[in-house]
Amino acid sequence: MTPRYHQHGVSLTSLLVGLVVSMIVILSSMALFNNTLQSNTRSSQDARLTGERATGLLVAHMELQGAGFGIDNAQPGTHLRLISGATLTGAPPTNGALSGTPQNIGSGQRTGNALIWSQAPNLSTGQVTCTGLYAPATGDLGLYLLRSQPCSDATEDLTWDAQPLITDGENQPFRKVQEFTFTVRHQDCQGLGVAGQGHLEVTLNTKHSTGATKADSDAIDLSSTTCLLNFPQ
User: How many other CB atoms are found less than 10 A from the CB of residue 199?
Assistant: First the structure.
């Protein structure tokens, strides 16, 4: 009688089943890792964009605090000009001339997308300079600082050098930068940390995107206000 031999080890079927199970576990782990990585990347990007937005708004308000400084009896409309429908020839941040419709800000409340003001920071020389803020209404949205330059008053036509403060770039895939506008309002106000009382406010209006991607339109209203202390009325 021929003796029987029992084979020991793993069968081909068991090996294939084990490979399939291992592949499922590996793919699941890779998917989990990828989701975690994307979530961390989105959180990091959101934090960076929020920080950039906060810094840009802080710079804008610090510049605005100087509006009318060193000018006797500074007047809205002459030493502070609000423009609606403003455009800057040449895409920011290149040099360009500003055009649009000046708003009558002698009383009441007006809104626009560009703001120009004059000041005399050097009291010894009395040299007047003009500075501005510009928010494109189309194309790459954001907020731009129009760098200071010599002028006579805020009504003068000048060629501006635009410095980006908050921009909507292709490297920002998770949050959409919304359009900015400026509102000038005659209102009694108190400057934060500054002695004295003002009668003119400038509010920066925008929206904060809350959507999961840049294409989402979900957003909440966001605004911040500066009291201009150098305008007596």
Answer: 16
First to last CA, the chain: 120
Distance CA 118, CA 146 (A): 12
Rounded to 5°, the CA angle 223-225-227 comes to: 175
Q: How far apart are CA 141 and CA 159, in angstroms?
A: 20
Continuous H helices in the chain: 12-64
Sheet holding 197-209, edge to edge: 109-112, 181-190, 197-209, 219-227
pTM of this structure: 0.76
Q: Rounded CA gap, 134 and 142, in Å? A: 8
With respect to residue 16, please indicate whether it lies within any of the assigned structural domains. no
Among 3-7, 196-200, 204-208, 220-224, the minimum mean pLDDT is found in 3-7
Instruction: Answer whether residue 3 is part of any domain.
Output: no
**Three-class SS state of 125:** coil
Determine, yes or no, domain membership for 210.
yes
Between CA 233 and CA 184 the distance in angstroms is 13
